[in-house]
Write a structure and sequence with these properties.
Length: 170
């Protein structure tokens, strides 16, 4: 687990809410506090869709997604936050997609398989003054091996640097 304090809050929020930069992530949950507090659960409600719609959206089978992409929820989050006043706070809990998790495993020197990884998590918190991003690794197996955690931390670090998001590592 690594914590990053973002050096430029406005720039980070602009990229988070107003650009597709984070769109490939899956959104587990989001809480936004403005005049009211809004909570978004990113879990897909498959029962909302007909069987045909589930098949068209690839929501069936063992590899079916459980979480919605941030791309589909970002416009809603932006609408909740935009305005003359900044939010009191917000928190986004992102998961790396299975495809990108698999890419990290291929690049990392690790014995873990995709089945061993429950989630690679990036939590973004704004407390009214600063944005902090924290990585997390959830394994489906017990292990003292930190190779996946280190690979995930490194990938997030490179993602921020590549996208000109300056940070201080805590």
């Amino acid at each position: 687990m690594t914590a990053f304090t973002m050096n430029e809050t406005n720039l980070f929020c602009k990229k988070l809410l107003g650009s597709p930069l984070f769109d490939a992530f899956l959104l587990e949950e989001c809480t936004i506090a403005t005049a009211n507090t809004f909570t978004i659960d990113g879990r897909i409600n498959k029962n909302f869709y007909t069987k045909e719609e589930q098949e068209d959206l690839n929501l069936t089978g063992p590899s079916a997604p459980v979480l919605t992409t941030y791309a589909s929820l970002r416009p809603i989050c932006f609408e909740l936050i935009k305005g003359k006043k900044t939010p009191l706070n917000f928190r986004f809990v992102f998961h790396l997609s299975r495809e990108n998790t698999e890419k990290i495993l291929q690049r990392a020197d690790t014995s873990f398989s995709l089945a061993d990884i429950h989630a690679l998590v990036l939590t973004v918190r704004y407390d009214g003054a600063a944005v902090m991003c924290t990585t997390g690794t959830s394994l489906s197996v017990f292990s003292m091996d930190k190779s996946v955690e280190h690979a995930w931390d490194d990938m997030v670090r490179r993602f921020f640097l590549k996208n000109d998001l300056a940070f201080t590592e805590n």
